[in-house]
Design brief:
4 helices, alpha+beta
């Protein structure tokens, strides 16, 4: 009888406990359901979408170290690819500016000969009498003729190839090179004149064949070189002239002596990738490779030489 009472009591308390637990479970389920419903409506609302979008954006603003290194590597690769191209474009622009300078100087010479009965200026070592002094007034630089040192930075900058730099030297006269300018008679520049076009020359002409000179400017055909990139103010090229050992012109004088066999060396300089710009009598300008210098009609009796090679 006692045992039966104990069993009844155990069953009674076990039933009470189960009922309580079921209530707690139901309360938990009800709470979970409410939370799910609330989260569902929050996502559907504008505030919920904004919060989610902000979360995604915040997640995208960060970079890992590997991603940063990859970006840096790509940028470095692009720079390595573009730098040679930019350098080439810059040199091409300078070469074009050089050709423009030569064209202006050639036009100045044409105007000068029109005013002087089809003749070029006399060859002279007197101040204000050399070819660049005489051309200055035809380039709107009248003051340059009498005082070139004070007016080099003006219009007469056309006497400088953009590929060259002025030399900071104190001598009154010095040679230039493929990369630097010359100085002579107070003037400076980096172009040289074909001196076979200056027949009125009491200083040097007597030592040269008279038949080589163009007596009048109109005697020279359109393909005769007038001015070109040079490491000195001018020259008398011969078809037998040798290729200089140093086409950079760095050795200067007496590496380019004043003698037959060496005069072409003043023009044969590596200023534009083994080529120079030349302005012709008709004011046209061309880029000419160094070996082709020996094929041009520098003087009346010049015989083209096609066997020249540049090391």
């Amino acid at each position: 009888m006692i045992c039966n009472n104990k069993k009844r009591m155990l069953i009674f308390w076990f039933t009470i406990l189960c009922i309580k637990n079921c209530g707690a479970i139901m309360d938990n389920r009800r709470t979970f359901t409410v939370l799910k419903v609330r989260r569902y409506f929050l996502r559907k609302s504008a505030w919920g979408r904004l919060s989610a979008e902000s979360g995604r954006i915040a997640g995208l603003t960060g970079f890992t170290l590997i991603e940063l290194l990859v970006v840096i590597a790509i940028i470095a690769l692009l720079i390595a690819i573009l730098m040679p191209a930019l350098s080439y474009v810059r040199k091409q622009a300078r070469s074009s500016a050089c050709q423009s300078n030569l064209r202006q100087l050639c036009l100045g010479m044409n105007l000068y000969t029109l005013d002087h009965d089809d003749r070029t200026m006399p060859f002279s070592h007197q101040p204000g009498k050399y070819w660049f002094h005489q051309l200055a007034p035809y380039l709107s630089a009248k003051d340059y003729k009498d005082n070139p040192e004070e007016h080099i930075e003006g219009v007469m900058k056309v006497t400088f190839c953009p590929m060259t730099k002025r030399q900071e030297r104190t001598e009154e006269s010095f040679y230039g090179s493929a990369y630097s300018s010359w100085r002579f008679m107070g003037g400076e520049g980096s172009y040289g004149l074909n001196l076979w076009l200056l027949p009125d020359d009491p200083i040097y002409a007597p030592a040269f064949p008279a038949g080589n000179f163009y007596k009048k400017y109109s005697d020279a055909k359109s393909d005769v070189p007038l001015l070109g990139d040079s490491m000195w103010v001018g020259s008398w090229p011969f078809d037998i002239d040798m290729v200089p050992e140093d086409i950079t012109g760095q050795i200067g004088y007496p590496g380019y002596p004043h003698a037959e066999g060496y005069f072409m060396g003043r023009f044969c300089i590596d200023r534009h990738k083994k080529a120079i710009n030349i302005g012709f009598v008709d004011s046209s300008v061309e880029r000419v490779y160094l070996e082709e210098l020996w094929t041009l009609k520098w003087h009346r009796n010049f015989r083209p030489n096609y066997e020249v090679s540049i090391p």
